[in-house]
Amino acid sequence: MPLSLRRGTVTAVRDQVPGLARIEVDGMPCVAYIDVTGPVEEGDDVLVNVQARELGLGSGGFDVLHANLSRGLELPAEPGAHVMKLPYTPIQFAVRHGEEDGGLPETLGGVPVVGCSLHSQVAPACAALRGVRVAYVQVPGGALPLALSDTVRSLRSDELLHLTIGAGACFGGDADAVNVHSALALAVARGAEAVVASIGPGIVGTATRLGHGGVAAAEALAAAAWLGGRAVLALRISEHDPRERHRGVSHHTDAVLSLSGGSYAVPWPEGCPVENPTADGATVVDVSGWRDACAGLPLSHMGRGPDDDPWFFAAAFAAGRLARGLAA
Q1: Which residue of 193, 196, 255, 310 is 20 to 30 Å from 118, comparing CA positions?
Q2: Helix, strand, coil proportions of the chain in percent (round to 5)?
Q3: Shortest CA distance to 116 belongs to which of 143, 139, 150?
């Protein structure tokens, strides 16, 4: 399907944070990745990709600035960068990658890696790792720009994250990496004592067993295990998801487990009332105090908070708590 581009005028700049501006174009909400397309101001003449909104894609259904015709046509490449993100596409751009500095370790040396199949698991997992130097690695499967994540900004502000890395097609971290393997090695090289690897906000989904973004968790954890890390899967559990395939232990988690080959730990939150199909291989984790540990953090999953679907968040917290016990 071709790009759906429309020309318009910036009618408002609502909010700006590092790497991202929330604007309106002809009165419609739009996101601008200003590190890619340059700064934006009210009155600018712009091209906007409107396809997601026109398709009604839920959480991803907003417009995205494609090009700023007023001030974004002659932007220089990042100094020293020559490796492309989104290569050979109409929106390729050069980013300096962490591997270019050399010095990556050949092993993770037992550093624990929590794999999350949803971005909404990141905050509770990091809350359980408080006091540990944590790196966040974003992998493809949801949003590619790290700047879109309000959760990551909140965790950085609360000093629950110390380093962010965009792996593969993802971009905009403190560092970027060619793939998830080198991203994990880069995290350890830069002092991480634990890693949380997750897709970005949103998720690719097709209602099929393997055709979803959550499979990226299996890829990240397989990389962690192969490199000598301690891989820990954050289970996706829900009592109240309206979709049968996601109630109890989600079919997304079933798929990730089936791809594991038994190579990573499976933490089960103690007291969880849903059926545990992973009982034979699971480690039961005490999650008492998870609400207090997560107080003030952005906890939301498909519009449900910790009071609406508590075991979703407790399960992600269990993964972080197990990883904390494995951290050196």
Answers
A1: 193
A2: 30, 25, 45
A3: 139
